[in-house]
Design brief:
This protein is mainly α and 317 residues long. The chain folds into two domains: 21-167, de novo design (two linked rop proteins) (Up-down Bundle); 181-307, Glutaredoxin (3-Layer(aba) Sandwich), CATH 3.40.30. Helices cover 53% and strands 7% of the residues. The chain is built from eleven helices and seven strands. Helix 1 packs antiparallel against helix 3 (63-83), helix 1 runs antiparallel to helix 5 and helix 3 (63-83) runs antiparallel to helix 4 (88-111). The protein is elongated, with a radius of gyration of 28 Å.
Length: 317
């Protein structure tokens, strides 16, 4: 009798049971988000870093295009690993590289500008990683779990920074929260009053400037409380009311708003008033013809700014 060897032909690999819907969905959404933003859609762009990083390029290609290529590669490797399990190790290595690169970018955002769109991309990358766990092979899963926790830790400061920027923006007594330039001032700081007066006398358009009051002490808070309900419409009116303002006890909502303004100064590393902050393009006057109020700060050549600390008096002029 002729014997038939069962090992004469390789047994084809059968696909794993259960389609990797989570992996496929996350990578497809990540690919679509990156492509859309590379074309200028600005999806999920709600923080300062979005406008900064959209101009970043590597070898002539925007970061969003690199992200789209990465998500597409992870999707194809994921489907290949599902059909042929021996490719699961390739998928694992690809995800480790993706998390390492993304972790470095998240760490950068923690130190500089947070980017909500980039965080959305990172979230989809993390979801895809978790959804691909059943496909990994030849790698101990605890290694992947530890690496994921490390990546998550790198992204936490960037996420907190974005939440702080979006949930705790400075409060404006006059002007829009979207104003590209913001002037922080105290009602009892003579250098602040002088700066507001110079801006008013400059004849420049102040519609792109937001004026944020800061309470150095209880007197400031009481003056700001009387001004907050006055419906001030112009810088000239603000200056007049500062001269005749009464003192009202601030309610808890105003105290929280004033705390947001101090936190905004703290994020800037500023400890003195007045402060002028805003878009570099606006301040340079290159984008829309805006003037730079900060040029008026040192017109006299003497720094007469006040400390934001209550106990420190303003310098005498």
């Amino acid at each position: 009798m002729q014997s038939i060897s069962s090992s004469s032909k390789p047994v084809p690999e059968s696909p794993r049971s259960g389609f990797p819907y989570v992996l496929a969905g996350a990578t497809l959404l990540g690919f679509a988000l990156c492509v859309a933003n590379s074309l200028g859609a600005e999806l999920f762009c709600a923080s300062s870093g979005c406008s900064v990083y959209k101009g970043y390029r590597l070898f002539g290609l925007s970061f969003y295009l690199w992200g789209a290529a990465g998500f597409l590669g992870l999707l194809l490797l994921g489907l290949l690993s599902w059909r042929q399990p021996r490719y699961g190790s390739w998928l694992g290595v690809a995800y480790l590289i993706a998390l390492l690169v993304d972790g470095g970018f998240l760490l950068w955002q923690g130190f500089f500008w947070p980017c909500t769109s980039c965080l959305a991309v990172a979230l989809l990358l993390g979801i895809g990683f978790l959804g691909s766990f059943p496909l990994f092979s030849f790698f101990p899963r605890p290694v992947f779990a530890l690496f994921f926790l490390f990546w998550f830790g790198l992204g936490t400061p960037a996420a907190l920074s974005a939440v702080r920027e979006l949930a705790l923006p400075p409060w404006m007594l006059l002007g829009s929260e979207d104003a590209p330039v913001k002037v922080f001032f105290s009602p009892t700081c003579q250098a602040c009053i002088d700066l507001l007066g110079k801006i008013n006398l400059s004849g420049e358009d102040c519609s792109s400037i937001g004026f944020c009051p800061v309470a150095k002490n209880g007197t400031d808070a009481e003056i700001i409380s009387s001004l907050s309900g006055a419906g001030i419409q112009s810088l000239e009116e603000l200056l007049m009311r500062l001269q005749t303002a009464e003192k009202n006890r601030p309610d808890v909502f105003l105290q929280l708003a004033l705390a947001r303004n101090k936190m905004a100064l703290a994020r800037l590393g500023a400890a003195s008033l007045p402060q002028v902050v805003g878009s570099d393009l606006f301040l340079q006057g290159e984008a829309n013809g805006g003037f730079d109020p900060s040029l008026l700060l040192y017109e006299s050549g003497v720094d007469t700014r006040c400390s934001v600390i209550e106990e420190d008096p303003c310098p005498s002029l």
